[in-house]
Amino acid sequence: MAKYVLVPDTTLSREYNNFPLLDFLPCAPSATVPGIIFEFLKGKPPAAIDARASAAPYALRKLESSLLAHHGPEDVVVAHEDFIEAFIKEDTEIIGVYTMDPLGLGPLTMSYSVLFDDYSKPWVRVEFEQLMKRLNKARKGTKAKLIVGGPGVWELTMMPEMMEELGIDLAYQGEADDVVNAFFDDVISGAVYDGHYFHGFQSFDTDFHKVWFTNDRFVTRKSSSKQFPVLEEIPLIRNPAIKGLVEIMRGCGIGCDFCEVTLRPSRYYSPEMVKREVGVNAAFGYTNAWLHTDEIFAYKHGPHFVPNGDAIKEVFRAAVSVKGIKHSNPTHGRISVPAAYPELTRDVTEIVNGGPDHWVGVQVGLETGSERLALIHMPNKTLPLKIGADGAWQEIVLNGLRNMNHTYWRPAFTVQVAQAGETPEDNWETVALVNRMSDMEVDGRPAEFTVIPMQNVPLGLIKSSGFSSKMLDESQLAVYYACYRHLMKMTRRVAMRDSKGNLVKRTMMSSVLGIGSFALLHVVEALCKKRGVDIEKVKRHGLRSYEAVPVIAR
Ligand code: SF4
Questions:
Q1: What is the structure's pLDDT at 379?
Q2: Quick one: pLDDT at residue 548?
Q3: pLDDT score of 117
Q4: pLDDT (tens digit, 9 = 90+) per residue, 508-530?
Q5: Which are the contacts of 36, defined by CB distance < 8 A and separation ≥ 6?
Q6: Options 3.40.190.170, 3.10.20.30, 3.40.50.150, 3.30.750.210; which CATH number does 240-333 get?
Q7: Counting atoms of ligand 1 from 1, which one is nearest the CA of 294?
Q8: Which of the ends of the chain has fewer CB neighbours closer than 10 A, N or C?
Q9: Helix (H, G, I), strand (E, B) or coil at 98
Q10: Does any ligand 1 atom lie closer than 6 A to the CB of residue 333?
Q11: Which DSSP string corresponds to 159-216?
């Protein structure tokens, strides 16, 4: 029925009622969040059109476009999750699956597994395993090969035995826009084993140097060949991407020592390219354009990562100039730029029609409240500001939050627990920072932000599944408590306001979210008490010594 059948990981095909942070819901353990609640909160998939997905994850749309450059639409199908089987027939050569967290080993998913001592599988893994079962059943008796790609492939490299168990023929690691046609041809002809590729995968040693492991189930580019597509080899999407998301750049270059993105070359889409892709999503009915980048303020940046305000504003202007688009926001950005360039966030807010009724959401990796750890792991993340010379790390963060809120930007922060070289004092600094942010008022309103802890689990423990809440010391539990305490505060304040739909649906959403955040905090509090963590100290930590933060001057 179709030569190439492309299928998204089902957790990536939902809009989660468009409620901030709910996209993280599938990271929760399946025994902790009941199926009925999970189904209600994740919502329905976008409708099918002739059994094809009307909207699909952006990366899958890119793959589709690469294939469509060489094949007709009858050969390339992005299947709607309800009709996958309809396309897998005798003539199907390849089933390609895109995934981000197939085994539930991502840092947020691990944080829940550790915290809840819950060895039930997280929803991401439950759904991925169900999908693999379905696909294997559907391809039985056909020649179709099952290939998995996407950023989640690293998890399969951690547990290569799962490839056999899940019935996956091959996993492809890395960007594929420029090679996917040749790669699929080679898989079909069998030439994939003729030395064109490295059979195995890349990983990193403790010093974050690349190391290569051989394994016949994995394929990646050879170290001697071109490693990434250049901009001209990246096709534009032809069909709508879920959530109205489009990419505006790849790579970053800031050099945080835990981040793989920084190792990729920077490639910037022109505003015209962005406009064309946003147009595809707008024609589908999306009114908000999500501009994806791992670091918005690095878009066409100047020396020392001075933000290129003109280029950033131009790309947002391009997005909202598309007919039907009312708003736009970036996916990720660093905190130091709003701290030092408040006029930039203000101008972007104006361009994207932001304001008190429409906040600009962005995910910001704070990683730590500790100046020591920030200097070790991410000394350049504050560029063009320098930690010390331009203010303490926490001053930069607090200034950034204040300026963001002042210009109606709402950051969704993440912090890391169990970073390399971390001490309890570092974690208490993170607790202090979270408390200070939570206690802050901006323009007479409580500060608007969320903060979520992410767990680093050593690779050896991941492999042995020997992780539990016992591996968290008191200071790490304190970080969890401070973060989830703030999250509950925020949920109470905004759940009704930010829920979408009619009054009944909004009431149901806000009730479920309110109860969920209360239950989450309750679990963490019980764990803290059991382990002798002084909850009152956690609540107060950092506040008594806290004074008004000096404004950073450029
Ligand atoms: S700023 Fe963000 S994307 Fe860039 S290297 Fe650091 S963590 Fe990675």
A1: 94
A2: 62
A3: 74
A4: 777 777 777 888 888 889 989 98
A5: none
A6: 3.30.750.210
A7: 3
A8: C
A9: strand
A10: no
A11: STHHHHHTT--EEE-S--TTTHHHHHHHHHHSGGGTTSSEEEEEEE-TTS-EEEEEEE
Handedness of CA 505, 510, 511, 515 (dihedral sign): positive
State if residue 436 touches ligand 1 by the CB under 6 angstroms criterion. no
C-beta of 256 in contact with ligand 1 (< 6 A): yes
Low-confidence ranges of the chain (pLDDT < 70): 118-119, 206-208, 463-466, 544-550, 553-554
CA angle (344, 345, 347) in 5-degree steps? 65
Burial of 412 (0-12, 13-18, 19+ CB in 10 A): middle
Q: Cα(41) to centroid of ligand 1, in Å?
A: 30
Distance separating the N- and C-terminal Cα atoms of the chain = 61
Q: Which residue has the tokens 């908000």?
A: 288
| Amino acid 155: pLDDT | 94
Q: What is the pLDDT of residues 131-158, one digit of tens each?
A: 999 999 999 999 999 999 999 999 999 9
The pLDDT, as a whole number, for residue 127 is 96
Residue 509: its pLDDT value, please? 73
Please tell me the predicted confidence (pLDDT) of residue 211: 84
The span from the CA of 358 to the CA of 349, in Å, is 9
Q: Which residue blocks in 327-451 are alpha helix, DSSP H?
A: 336-340, 342-351, 371-377, 393-406, 424-439
Residue nearest to atom 8 of ligand 1 (CA): 259
